Amino acid sequence: MKRVFMACTLTLAAPLTSAADKTDMAQLHREIEQLKVDYEQRLHTLEVRVQAAEASAKAAQADAAAAQTAASASPAPVATATTAAGTAFNPQVSVILDGTYGKFAHDPTQYAIPGFALTPDANPGKRGPSLGESELAMSANVDDKFYSEIQISLQPEGGASVEQAFFQTLEMPASLTVKAGRFFSGIGYLNEQHSHVWDFVDQPLAYQALLNNQYADDGVQVRWLAPTDTFLELGGELLRGDTFPGGNPSGNGPGARSAFVHVGGDVGISNSWGAGLSQLRTQANNRETGDLSPADTFTGDSTISVADFVWKWAPNGNPVYTNFKLQGEYLRRAENGSFTPSGLSAAPYDGVQRGAYLQGIYQFMPRWRVGVRHDWLTAGNPGAAFTNTVLDPKNHTPKRDSVMVDFSNSEFSRFRLQYNHDQSQPTTDNQWFFQYIMSIGAHGAHQF
Amino acid sequence: MAGRGPIANLNEDHDMSNKLTTLLSASLAALLSVTSVPASAVLKVFACEPEWGALAQEIGGDKLDVYTATNALQDPHQIQARPSLIAKVRNADMLVCTGAELEIGWLPLLLRQTGNARIQTGQPGNFAASDFVRMLDVPVKLDRSEGDVHPFGNPHIQTDPRNIARVADGLAKRLTQLDPADAAYFAARQRDFDQRWGAALQRWQQQAAPLKGVAIVTQHKAWDYLENWLGMTEVGVLEPKPGIPPNSSYLAEVLEHLKQQPARMVIRAAYQDARPSEWLSQQAHIPAVELPFTVGGDAQAKDLFGLYDDTVQRLLKGLQ
To answer: Are the CB atoms for A437 and A96 separated by under 8 Å?
Structure first.
């Protein structure tokens, strides 16, 4: 929310500064007048075109009817109008509604993974029926050179946050693509995927614990696609560094940077694959974790390395009837700095924490899929200074097994039942979820 | 490591990150210089569907290097934006696709991810076949409760061979625009194709004369243009709504409906599940006819001529 207001203030401030000069004002007025005239003309042209199109559509229907009776009738003249993408000049608008019914043996508000400093809002879900985050998204080509997209996440308890808001270049030389604004970082495989395309209700433990589910940040991303038949993409990002596991950047420069390489290809016509290696380096400055009374804090470096792969199979490359997807990622986070456990004094911390998951999703008939996932974490030994603090793994290896089945009436609606045998905490939790995901409006294509 | 202060580590890491960035930009620059190879005379064409790949080959001959993104056993509505496709689009000089939002689920993403200026919407390298034909079945009502509707009309334009001739004309002009040096070559090939196509059209229409007025059931609303061409009447569709798979209760309804309005055959595309039409075939005692739908849909549909030769033959066989 804070960022939304900042953006608004900036936009409002802009006209004030330009109003300083009176001649500039007059110039501006003239320009606006010119714009108005220009747009009125365009509107008129559009109206005429719409009327013409309606008339020709009627004619086409009549023609079609005539053609039914006389098959040998000569074909109608060719329509040469260019097919426009989307609707008129409006951006594509879509809304995603998401709701869950959750059943937990243990109170999810008391959730903690021994050995891991989690953000205050980390939890495995809510008990009972609950509305998830609703997502409002708009996207469109700005002009011939740029594409823009915004996703606003509406919290069920009120309030909204900007999940992504970026523009992206459409045509740069040498297949470079530049993205700027706020966006999901290109690291890993799952990190860029929207929650409504996740194959499970929740993210793997590794993403939950090491990246607070998903790493989005403000900054610039550059991607380059190699001119090869095998897909090879290199990318890098300069980011603000204000999101977990970073936080509170103080300098003028970027607080975080990342680099990634993605490769992929086909094996025959039925198999395709993708793999990637990425690294995100960020800095935390009094990053607060735990339950804030008082919080644990960390100041230092955080470096996350991710290796990911995905393998997809669909007979003849046609995923409509049956398909299978195998996917796994390995995350390693090294942190080096000073950690202050709640209520204690700071001590130097140098630790490596790891997490991974492996999952398979099988669509056994149209619209029905089943999935299994195994994921685990290792906290590493933080040293004697942190015994009995949040960083103490207490000889526990967090792990979890999940199974799910989902049904999609169309690509716009999905219902899912999921069971987690969750051993991320020392006491085993049995978690049940029933989830719906509804998507209305124009909705763009999904990534591989 | 643990003994050092956080400040020292931060500085060290800055240095390391800087090195990383320098390394990355250096390797990028090196790779870029490698990529700027001189433009060759051969245009790289990315054809979204097999019929357009085949047509591009007919018109462009050896002046084109044609890659066909999908095969006849795939549903062109539902293709995944696979890494291999991104790599191919990145290198393409021209896209030849149906358009009319048939590829809405995958093509926009490919275009965006590659940032290839030559083939973005509105560029001459972005060729949409549906721009050159008159669209049928343009919906009056746009609502998802109607299923997977296409706002610009039914996109399966290749089921009418007269459309192929129109697209061929547009394609030749576009190729000339992109590669003026070979204008005469494209024009000659287009004239030659047009002649052969005209003769074939006459043959198909003569052969298909008995199909006029024949009532058919289709599995997906993919045959409007074919019906329009041959004068067949569609009396039922097995999908309750476009893109929604047939279910047993709806199939029973169709079967009931056929008692009042009998059909001579039920047709489906090669890429579709055979079961619903086979079920109806058994229940209603009418033949189920699998049509190639596009080039490569069966052994006979090796090229565009084979596609319609075989389509007409299979339909005629269905009448017997």
So the answer is: yes
